[in-house]
Sequence to fold (425 residues):
Amino acid sequence: MSADFAEIFTVAARHAVPMVRAKGLRFSFDCQTDGIVYVGDAPALQGALHRLICTVVETMATGSVLISAQMEGSPEEPRRVGVSIGGVGQCDEARLAMTVQRLGLALNPVGHNGTPEYAAQGMCPLTQGRVELHCLPSQGLLVSLELTSLAPGPESADPPAHASGARAWLVNVDDLLGNSWKRRLQRLGWAVSIFPSLREAAVQLGEQPHAAKPSLVLLMERDGSRRDCSMAFAAELPASAQLVYAVQAASRNLKDSMLEGFQMRVYPFSPDDLDHFTCHANGADLPSGTTRPMPLTLDHMPVVLIVDDQPLNLVIGRGLMEALGYFVHTASSAVEAIARCRTEAPDVVLMDVRMPSMDGLAATAELRGMQLKGLIPPFPIIAFTASWSHQVREECLAAGMDECLPKPLEIGMLARELHRFCAMH
Fold:
């Protein structure tokens, strides 16, 4: 048997969203698997994915859940898919032991210097994929699954969907989910604006000339939102605009008649959903003016390179950066970071201080030397470390870093420092 991996993955995530919301957690979702198929028992894979997602959701006491899948290789020759379910925030250690035991894994303490830290690994009996777990209870949890039973999807005669700069508005979304939707749409050529409320979107809509109004509106359901306001908003849009009312699985709204003018879709959206929206984009005659807020395409997003030898810290850092609206690259060593900066210089580097082989101080010295020679452009380097002290900060500044922040990273402090240095850049 075989089935589209992205659809299986999306459905597994949809089933977990009500539990995420019930716990007051935020979440993001991304799937970059380019139409490949899973060769095997599709219901077993969906069950395995749902079980891993639930492990993270149940373990998190506060914070966010980040769900993603990434393909290695090409659509014609897929080598593997890596599924990553990360929790960013405070973990419940007692519940961690229970949920890991349910996975059939042995939880091993691996912390040092008195810092609680746990790891586990094994094989998933439903997929025969490799499962790894890593947890720092005060910072978060990472569960990953590696799948290799893959094959190319069916060939399509149609060219890949691309919105060619058409406008998409995301309404009623929080920053984490909104930015995950934004990144996915930007990869398909949309220029995206985010509005925290329908009221703000309605005010902006009233100020736009007809040609600058959006071709796609994704309106997320929210408790207390008024249906009559939604319909009045829809009436102000061009007739060609796609209006999508995004609801979670088992939403009471699914029992009701559809909002006039809106199509109702369960989120998170699958790649096929986004392709459908994009195939119907109306982006041919874009005006030269801009909107407020300015719609961003992928090329305009500031790029942050996160450097850390711990996979969990990379997941946590990515989640925080993406929640703040940055495009993220990662490197698991100083050597890899230097190589990445040679080929694609970021707007800012977030550098761990203590790493094996080459630490962050030595990596910074090498990068600054390359910048002095004109080999790479200048960019800020911000250190982050669990062993923060005034002395460590002075060492970082002496090595050429611009600032030094303590771990665990706090989103407010991070937002202020990134704004400070990216504005300079």
Remarks:
- The chain has three domains: 2-151, 167-287, 301-424.
- The chain has a mean pLDDT of 86.
- The longest strand covers residues 78-88.
